[in-house]
Amino acid sequence: MSEILLYYKRPDPTTWVYLSSFLTIGLFFVFHRFWSIRNLDIFLLILLAPGLLMVHEGRRRQLQEIESEVITHRQTETVPATPHSANADSDQGSRLSNTELRNTGLANTGLRELAAAGDLNPSPRSQNAATSSLSSKLGSSGGDVLVALTQAVPTDDPDAATMSEEEASVRAEAAILAQPAVPLATDSPESMLDADAAGSADASTADIEADVDPEASSEIDPEDIRRYGFISLFIVQFMLLIRLLLDPLMVRRPLLDPNLSSGGLTFIGVSLFIFMMANIVASTPRIQIEQGPKLGPGYALMNMLPAIPTRPVTDALAGSTLGDENELNESQSRLATIAKVLAILAHAAIVSGIVLIGNWHFGNMRAGVGCATLYLLMPYTAQMTGRVDHALPAALLLWAVLFYRKPLVAGIFLGLAAGLVYYPFFLLPLWISFYWRRGVWRFTIGVAVMLGLLMMLLSLSGVESLVDHLRTMFGLFKPETKSNILGGIWGLGWNPIWRLPVIVGFVILCSFFAAWPAQKNLGTLIGCSAAVMVGAQFWHGYGGGLYIAWFLPLLLLTIFRPNLQDRIALKVVSDSSNKKRRPAALEVDAA
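Predicted structure:
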């Protein structure tokens, strides 16, 4: 964007939170009805931002700390040894034991092997290959090898072997980001032992430690910041869940349009959309380290797509050093292009879907444009613009609502969303109950056809892996209860065993929606679908609370919707049998 707009820089996440919050209040706050539910909804939407900021800041600090550790130890490793300095510091000995230094050298060797193969952002297969080649040398468990490979620095922490995969991925990411800054040591582990005994290495390490701010040690640990961020997100999302459960009881829904005309809202929305999509195009891909099983149940091909960072965490992560697409191999470059295209199309589908629902089903174009503009104003949208696994399922769910009058088409969209990320499967009881009196078979056929197509695509990868892919796609395995495998809040201190009662409560909630409300209309379909996707955040074991896009468009439609009690399936869904009988009836009348 700096090539198009002179001196343009992407705003810091905190700055954008303040700006977007002021704009949201100015455009959508109902000043003449201060105690209205609309103002409470706007307040809850704004409260999502602090939790996101804390998670973002915690990850940024964690990356910077580990990145500095990697650079520091690589600097000490590359300092040449001299006889004079070795004799001068022989009384103090080396700071690292022989075993630790050997592990460090072998870990750096593994990183060099990955870099030499062109895989600067290693996938799980390349990581497993590197770790398996080092396991015989290290003589340690797989977890220790992973820590040695990802951290690239020695550790005396006895809990290193039980490090969570999320922390290990952060350390791997930081090690990779720090790699271009300082050349890796090419000496053997034995020569590094001699180099460590050098007094210059000790002196440089002492100087680095002396430059550290003493107040830095009193700061909150990055993991604690992230934990507080997830807790904040869970509290706000729990209040949103209560709000959505009470929504069917709110019969009186006065017309509260935005404080700006449709033309002004359209201008702001189009401008925001162009800037966000330009960030996707201009951003460089970061091939996901968190691939495969770490993403939880879902479609295997979705896990291959890289994340497109649109907000800087560190300079390297923002794409200033490691992000040149020319450094990616052909396969990675192709996947990055596909991810960019899908992300742009998904957000375009979300925005257009919201506007069309407001125009077609709500009969209020201004409300639809305002709802779409509010979606683009949200700090979450700017921070997670490049996440295909966030935006694509949200777009599919939204278009299922858009075509709710066509059960077959709605089933196709919902089946595709469920096949890609698994969690929309829990919407089936609600949607089947909505179509129960008319259109249930057409809806079921649409879901089944789309799931069948997805399974056929998986079969192209081979019969041997098909069973594993299907188990992952449909979530046919026991809930994970090991914190070192899970991510998000469940990998940051919360006992994963408590996921089990949360899952049970979630299943009861989804089953409850099959019977309540007894007569479902479009309004309850939208609100209860948003409630189900909010509830999925609490037991999502791989970043639950961050997948806000899964419910945000539906939540905004619930906030802006009018009274839709007359939009029931029995009235708005056409009966296929009547279409066949109508010509015969017309012939009888003509006779």
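Summary: The mean pLDDT is 77.
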